[in-house]
């Protein structure tokens, strides 16, 4: 009985070691993303909770990541672009306008670019929304959470 129990424990331990040894390493644990273009899934969270913001529906997925010399720039496409009059991200303690990379007026979309320190950190942002047809204007704090494991 002791031999069977010892063998079972050894096999169980070996299985766990093998499982972790063969598990894929996610991009989050990779030291640095290679220079070039990648993509990553992300979600737009509310400012005060890790729950999905209504604004999430106005951001196309996935984000494009441009990496150069270890620095990451994220490019996201805003839908209903005419409603989103301002999009700023927090950089070094200051909210800065994201750089507009492209605009497609016919499709009512625009792509913006901003710096990302790490894909494991949440990116605070601010959006201003104006919907003239209903006389609505609002300013919102949001957060972008990238899924580092989804990087391709």
From TrEMBL:
Annotated protein name in UniProt: Putative iron transport-associated protein
CDD domains recorded: NEAT
Source species, domain of life: Bacteria
Main location: secreted
Keywords of the record: Cell wall, Peptidoglycan-anchor, Secreted, Signal
Subcellular location: Secreted, Cell wall
UniProt cross-references to Pfam families, sorted A to Z: NEAT (PF05031)
Taxonomic lineage of the native organism: Bacteria, Bacillati, Bacillota, Bacilli, Bacillales
InterPro entries with a match to the protein in the record: IsdA (IPR050436), NEAT_dom (IPR006635), NEAT_dom_sf (IPR037250)
Membrane topology per record: Peptidoglycan-anchor
Range of residues in the leader sequence: 1-30
NEAT domain boundaries: 33-152
